[in-house]
Amino acid sequence: MPASAPPSAADRGVPPRERILATAMRLFYRQGVRATGIDLIIAEAGVAKATLYHHFPAKSDLVREYLKRRHEAWMEQFARKLAATRRRGLPALADALGRWFEAGDFNGCAFINVTAESAEDEWRRVSCAHKDALRTLIAGRIAADASPGRRDALAAQALLVVEGMIVRFQMTRDASVVNEGRAVLALLEKRAAVQGALSPCRRGGFPSDRSRR
Q1: Which pTM was predicted?
Q2: Cα-to-chain-centroid distance, residue 16
Q3: SS3 for 144?
Q4: Can you tell me the distance from the alpha carbon of 184 to that of 165, in angstroms, rounded to the nearest whole number?
Q5: 3-state helix/strand/coil string of 155-200
Q6: Which domains does the chain have, with CATH numbers?
């Protein structure tokens, strides 16, 4: 493996803890948590081993902070992409995902990746919390006159489509994933609108809600 370049003058002005985190976030996302060793992070961050362990006594501490910051940054960026699309409702999710897929560093969902890599229960819980937050954001795209039960059920279904689009694009790099996902999201929205028009709102929402209880 070629030697890592020393930190630039600008990097040297960044506090060591932030430099370590920025390096770990880039490497963890690009090549995976398990494949990224502490020695590589130390070399690329340009810090001493003692400095890294002073700020992060264990690798799990670094992974925990990585996931926390990744969640905050991704949710903010995705909300911005949603706000920028002209489309309304659930199909706008596909547009926002398409913009993310076009990013040069796209390597799938960091939370799906880390859960697939590790059997650690903590990372699974953190990943589920991230997906719960995304489901809440999706619910905000659903018509305000929908009952809470219907909104929750539709948001959960749309989240499955979103997750499938992310994984499918990560595997294939096929841009048609965006159009296909948008069509499925539009069908979900149309079906929910028809069901809402044909039947009165019932406590408990869709039958699928009740079956999960």
Answers
A1: 0.85
A2: 27
A3: coil
A4: 10
A5: HHHHHHHHHHHHHHHHHHCCCHHHHHHHHHHHHHHHHHHHHHHHCC
A6: 1-57 (1.10.10.60), 68-211 (1.10.357)
Tokens matching residue 190: 């149309």
Instruction: List, in order, residues 6 or more apart from 154 with CB less than 8 Å away.
Output: 90, 139, 142, 146, 188, 189, 192, 206
| Whole-angstrom distance, CA of residue 74 vs CA of residue 72 | 6
For 56-77, write each residue's pLDDT tens digit. Answer: 999 999 999 999 999 999 999 9
Which positions ≥6 away from 100 have C-beta within 8 Å?
A: 77, 78, 81, 106
- The CA distances from residue 164 to 83, 170, 181, in Å, are 22, 10, 8
Interatomic CA distance for residues 22 and 55, integer angstroms: 13
What angle do helix axes 121-139 and 110-117 make, rounded to 10 degrees?
A: 150
For the chain, the helix, strand and coil percentages under 3-state DSSP, each to the nearest 5: 70, 0, 30
